[in-house]
């Protein structure tokens, strides 16, 4: 992978947003498991997890504003996002029955597909498949791909 100094501006932006998406999934998972609110988790990520490329290895370089917009957006729109994701699941399955990480991926990616029309649907889908691959080796990435494909075709038919 190219270092930050050799990246084009668009490659740099894509890399920082990729890290923000992964961090947003981790933040939602942390909120659910730890019972913390969005503002506390966002603050914790900004203060203790994000940093510049030349900082300690435990820091992640990410688009912090994009991260915050994803986490805050999911929380703000969860009453709309959750039913939209539920509708994509097989009969008798509900979001609550899924693994917490899968649920977090569906919520963040679903929010982005439904409400962040500034990002092309195919980019969103590809990015969250990569996030799923970071956590799972089994059927979950294929399941997430299928769910997001259906979501995008319903929410953004003009892109397909």
Helix share bin: 55-70%
E-strand count: 0
User: pLDDT under 50 segments (min length 5)?
Assistant: none
Q: Report mean pLDDT, rounded to a whole number.
A: 91
Shape: globular
Structural class: mainly alpha
Q: Sheet bearing the most strands, described? A: none
Q: What is the H-and-E element order? A: HHHHHH
**Beta fraction:** under 5%
Radius of gyration: 15 Å
Would you give an account of this structure?
This protein is mainly alpha-helical and 160 residues long. It is built from six helices and no strands. The protein has helices at residues 9-34, 38-48, 64-86, 100-115, 121-135, 140-155. Helix 1 crosses helix 2, helix 4 (100-115) packs antiparallel against helix 5 (121-135) and helix 5 runs antiparallel to helix 6 (140-155). The protein starts with 8 loop residues before the first helix and ends in a 5-residue tail after the last helix.
